[in-house]
Amino acid sequence: MVKTVKKSFHTGSVKKIIMIKTSKDKVWRKVSNIVGLPTWLIDVKKTVYLSKKKRGVGAVRLITFTDGNKIEEHIVSWKSGEYFTYIATEGLPLRAYVATISIKVKSKKIVQVTWQSYLNSKKMSEKLFLEFLAFMGSFYEASLENLKALLEK
């Protein structure tokens, strides 16, 4: 007898925080360059603008990963020097993906970077969704470690 896996929608979130010994301006310059991802995001081949707008609300980027997967993202909220929020509209096994990267000065030379997201899946098994959440968590973590290494040079 074949057991059918019940497929349904799942909701989850991912949040990773890292402390970086550098200036707030240096961190903001790096994370707010929304097509500069290949320098610190893991497995990114290239990122291009799909909009005339390059910063702030309304800017759109297309990320191409080394495995060929492409994700289109739109900036929906932006406060210069503090945070920006983006949504993925194409390329993920999700109905909704909203993420925010924010920075906060913790002391004279320590900047806290927080990357958090809300996800709502397309129809899939809970096991698959939990694996996807774990993958996203390790992706955020490894990318933030890259960012730290880059900025603390």
TrEMBL record:
Gene3D superfamilies attached to this UniProt entry: 3.30.530.20
UniProt superkingdom: Archaea
InterPro entries, per database record: Polyketide_cyclase/dehydratase, START-like_dom_sf
Pfam family, one: Polyketide_cyc2
Classification via PANTHER family: BLL4707 PROTEIN, SRPBCC FAMILY PROTEIN
Identification of the protein by name: SRPBCC family protein
Organism whose genome encodes this protein: Marine Group I thaumarchaeote
